[in-house]
């Protein structure tokens, strides 16, 4: 009876011990499997993010973060195929895009005018500072509400396209005073200078400036005289960063665009031009400078 009891106890306890050991082993295996899967998922996600979202390269001491070439080319292609009447041709988009890609990061990009390409410029200047200036306060508010990532400010132009020659003459007469090529326009009374932009716009060292506004389709339209003049002053008044600023003037076939471009951005700085786009490279100047162009005759020649 005693032996039977002891054998019975052995039979009853043995399965229990095995079950308890198996349970602990299963929990241990589950624990290890969970952390293994978590580690693999993190590793895969990190690799995908680093290869698909952005490409980081180091060039001449600058770390530049850009979109992959395939993404940029796709954006340019579809933007150029738009049904919008006023969209830029592919050649102009590509020229501006190429300059943005070579810009040190973060790139400072200032655009006069809200256009069909607004979202494109924001996307191409990935991780950079992109600011838009437009004369239509209602449209600016609409864009900002619809696309909160867009940084846009409205400005009141006091010029008329029909006054272009008078305004250029006035700027020349005041070139040593209010219309100096190097100054903080925030405190300027120059008729062509924009002095009511947000304070920080005057403090940024702009790498690329695009003049694609305001409107200039009729005599009383503001025209782009002030935008071009302001772009020239901002480029020459930089405090740091790259001493050169790429300034693009769209609709370069227009009289205002070409005349004011050569007058205030200087014909000698024109590195490339097509029927629709003028590309200037403007260097910063000494604060005592009183001439927009190193070759003083270049502007006059353009005016004649």
3D architecture notes:
Helix 8 (225-236) links the parallel strand 6 and strand 7. This protein folds into 2 domains: 1-52; 58-303, Rossmann fold, CATH 3.40.50. The chain has helices at 2-52, 69-80, 90-102, 118-124, 137-146, 164-173, 199-203, 225-236, 255-266, 296-303, and strands spanning 55-59, 62-66, 108-112, 129-134, 151-154, 208-211, 244-250, 270-273, 277-283. The radius of gyration is 31 Å and the shape is globular. Helix 2 (69-80) runs antiparallel to helix 3, helix 8 packs parallel to helix 9 (255-266) and helix 9 packs antiparallel against helix 10 (296-303). A 7-stranded mixed beta sheet has the order 5-4-3-6-7-9-8, sandwiched between helices. Strands 1-2 form a two-stranded antiparallel sheet. Helices cover 46% and strands 15% of the residues. The chain has 304 residues and is of the alpha/beta class. Mean pLDDT is 82; it is low at 1-20, 44-64 and 296-304.
List the SSEs and their pairings.
Elements (H helix, E strand, L loop, with lengths): L1 H51 L2 E5 L2 E5 L2 H12 L9 H13 L5 E5 L5 H7 L4 E6 L2 H10 L4 E4 L9 H10 L25 H5 L4 E4 L13 H12 L7 E7 L4 H12 L3 E4 L3 E7 L12 H8 L1
Parallel strand pairs: 3-4, 3-6, 4-5, 6-7
Antiparallel strand pairs: 1-2, 7-9, 8-9
Helix pairs in contact: 2-3, 8-9, 9-10
Task: Summarize the model shown.
It is a single-pass membrane protein. The protein has 304 residues and is of the alpha/beta class. It has ten helices and nine strands.
């Amino acid at each position: 009876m005693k032996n039977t009891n002891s054998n019975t106890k052995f039979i009853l306890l043995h399965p229990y011990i095995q079950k308890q050991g198996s349970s602990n082993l299963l929990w241990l295996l589950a624990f290890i499997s969970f952390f293994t899967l978590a580690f693999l998922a993190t590793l895969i996600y990190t690799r995908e993010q680093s290869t698909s979202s952005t490409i980081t390269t180091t060039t001449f001491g600058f770390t530049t973060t850009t979109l992959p070439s395939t993404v940029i080319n796709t954006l340019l292609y579809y933007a150029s195929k738009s049904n919008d009447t006023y969209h830029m041709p592919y050649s102009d988009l590509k020229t501006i895009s190429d300059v943005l890609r070579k810009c040190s990061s973060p790139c400072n990009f200032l655009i006069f005018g809200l256009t069909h390409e607004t979202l494109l410029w924001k996307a191409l200047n990935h991780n950079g500072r992109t600011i838009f200036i437009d004369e239509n306060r209602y449209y600016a508010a609409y864009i900002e509400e619809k696309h909160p990532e867009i940084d846009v400010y409205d400005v009141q132009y006091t010029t008329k396209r029909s006054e272009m020659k008078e305004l250029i003459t006035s700027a020349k007469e005041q070139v040593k005073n209010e219309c100096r090529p190097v100054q903080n326009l925030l405190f300027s009374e120059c008729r062509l200078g924009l002095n009511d932009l947000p304070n920080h716009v005057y403090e940024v060292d702009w790498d690329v400036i695009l003049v694609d506004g305001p409107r200039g389709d009729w005599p009383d339209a503001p025209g782009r005289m002030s935008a071009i003049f302001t772009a020239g002053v901002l480029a020459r008044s930089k405090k740091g960063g790259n001493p050169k600023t790429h300034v693009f003037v769209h609709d370069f076939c227009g009289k205002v665009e070409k005349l004011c471009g050569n007058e205030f951005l200087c014909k000698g700085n024109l590195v490339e031009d097509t029927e629709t786009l003028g590309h200037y490279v403007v260097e910063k100047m000494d604060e005592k400078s009183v001439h927009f162009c190193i070759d003083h005759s270049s502007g006059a020649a353009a005016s004649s």
